[in-house]
Amino acid sequence: MSGLMDLHNHTVRCLHATGTMEAYVERARALGISDFGFSDHSHWMLNATHERYAMLAEELDAYVADVQQLQARYHCDGPHPFRILLGMEMDFIPARLAVARATQERYPWDYLIGSVHHIGFEKLQQPELYTQWSGDDVCELYFHQLGLMIRERFADIVGHLDLPKKMGFRPQRGLLSYIEPLIPDLLAAGMAVEINTSGLDNPAQEFMPGWDTLAALAESGVPLTLGSDAHAPHQVGRHFALALSGLRRIGVRTLVRFERRQQITGEVAALQAITSN
Ligand SMILES: [Zn+2]
Ligand SMILES: [Zn+2]
Asked: How far is the CA of 124 from the centre of ligand 2 (A)?
C-alpha cells in the first residue's frame, strides 16, 4: 500500500534520540509506510551552556550523506514504492535566518519542517515556563513568532503547530483562537501543517494540533501531512491508525507528501490503516 508518510523523524545526531537510522527505516517498511523522511534538528538551535539538542554544523554533510546512502540502498518503485526522503526540522530563529536560508540552498532537500522551539532563550517544552510567566502571554509570543515564520515562507511544513500545549498548558481562550488568524498566512505561503502524533504520548495527550484545529485547517484548505516525531525506532508511525480514522471522521480526504520540495497530494481513502501501535 503506498501513500502513507512519516516525515518527522530524528537521529542520534541530535543527542536526544536513540537507534540506528537503519532501524528507523526498517520500522517504517514493516509498517507499510511508503514515504519515510528523516528530519533531524538543525544545527543553529539555541543550546544552554551545558546542553546540546542538535547536530553540529560540521556534522551536516555526514547527515545528508547518511540519508543519501539509505536512499540508494532502500529506494523502490513499482506497485509498492518505498522512498526515503531528505528533510530537516529547521528552527525558526529570526536572528538566524541567514544561516537557515544558506542551508536550505546547499542541499537537495525533499522537504523542510519549520519549528519554533524557543521564544527568546526560553524553551517552550519546559513546564516551568507556563507557571513562571502567564501561559497566555507565552502563547501570544509563540504564535507571533510562528506567524513571522509562516509569512517568511520559511519551510514546507509547520512542525507541532500548537507546541505550547505539549506539557499540559491550555490557554484560557483556547488554542484555536491563536491559530485561526494564521490560516490566511498559511494559505498564502502554501505551507502544510503536520499532524504530529507524539502529542498523544506527552502531557497534552492529543495530537499537535488537536482535532478542532485540524478540522478548521482542513475546511480552509490548508494541506495536512503526518509525522510521528520519532526519537526512537519504535516510535515511527506511532498512533497513525488513530490519526487516519480521525481524519476520515472529520472529513479530510487528502494528505500531502513531498519530493524535492514539491508538494504531492494523495487520497486518504487510499491509505491503509497501519498496524495499531
Ligand atoms: Zn520539534
Ligand atoms: Zn522533532
From this structure: 13
* Per-residue pLDDT reduced to its tens digit, 97-147: 999 999 999 999 999 999 999 999 999 999 999 999 999 999 999 999 999
Return the closest-CA partner of residue 24 out of 43, 37, 42, 5. Answer: 37
Please list the residues that pair with 123 across neighbouring strands.
118
Q: Return the pLDDT at 270.
A: 74
Residue type, 36: F
Ligand lying nearest the CA atom of residue 123: 1
pLDDT of residue 274: 60
pLDDT tens per residue, range 82-100: 999 999 999 999 999 999 9
CA of 45 to the centre of ligand 2 (A): 12
Between the CA of 202 and the centroid of ligand 1 the distance, in Å, is 13
Ligand closest to Cα of 230 equals 2
Query: Are the C-beta atoms of residues 8 and 156 closer than 8 Å to each other?
Result: no
- Which grid cell is 56? 553540529
Whose atoms come closest to the Cα of 88: which ligand?
A: 2
Cis peptide before 223 (omega within 30 of 0): no
CA of 78 to the centre of ligand 1 (A): 33
- Residue 15 Cα to ligand 2 midpoint, Å, equals 12
CB 115 within 8 A of CB 125: no
Strand-pairing partners, residue 86, are 38
Whether 43 contacts 55, CB under 8 Å: yes
